[in-house]
Amino acid sequence: MKNTIIVVVILIILGIGGYLLTRKGPEVVVKPNEDQTTPPPPVVVTPPSASSTEAVKDPSKTVIGKSVEGNNLTAYHYPPTKTESTRDTEILFVGGIHGGYSWNTTLVAYELMDYLEKTPTAIPSNVKVTVIPSLNPDGQKKTVGTTERFTKAAVPTAPAERISGRFNANNVDLNRNFDCDWQAEGVWQTKKVSGGTAVFSEPESLAIQKYVEENKPDAVIVWYSAAGGVFASNCHNGVLAETKKLTSLFAKASGYKEYNDFDFYEITGDMVNWLAKKNIPAISVLLTDHENTEWSKNKAGIDALLKNYAK
Length: 311
Description:
Blueprint: H1 2-22, H2 50-53, E1 61-66, E2 72-78, E3 89-94, H3 103-118, E4 127-132, H4 137-144, H5 159-164, E5 185-188, E6 191-194, H6 203-215, E7 219-225, E8 229-232, H7 241-254, E9 257-259, H8 271-277, E10 282-287, H9 295-309
Helix pairs in contact: 7-9
């Protein structure tokens, strides 16, 4: 009897255990911890509107082209708010056409920019002033080591180093590359220089040609060195009446000597003479030497021209 009871108890225990083993337990969900990663949801990129992708034009300056070595040729405008529709007169000043050789023509242009920034009232309300401080950045860099603004301390004293910076990277004298009496071989003092393979063969002269033809400045003043004078322009068509007036105004105000033309030696492919051919009043202002900007003299001449165009 006792054995029977034990067998029954064992059977009951086995039955309960089997039931428990066959019963399905609750489902366990494993959540990723901070070290586990799941693929991120797809990122939807909305293309920007056409207006947001357009470059914002800086009204204070215009890159008019590139030099042979790819450096910017930049024109700076004063005041920057003046546009073609809001100004009556544009006066263009150009420096540095002979790069590091005439380095002071670049620095006097920068001094003009400083003056216009500090004294905007010097500009008549109807006038826009444009300044291109360096038309030959490659030649400038060859002499002073930069295409940007520099100081007199950066200028080498050796004449050969300065002379090598007169030309662009194609070894062309840019002031022999314009369309007035152009020749492939020009003259500088007693030396033969390259005038390029054709008129406007050089990117620098081509850039200023395009700027002038598109913007039609009312007067152009180009700085050179060195002779100490103000020279009128012409290309076998006589000196324009307005050019004579500008030459006289600048000379009298600055104290430089006035000249009807440049006749120290034959000039071919000259920039201001090309401007005269285009019937644009243009003068050359030649600084007295290769060492100074003569800012006070030039400021007086500039002020006289600005007042001349005021309405």
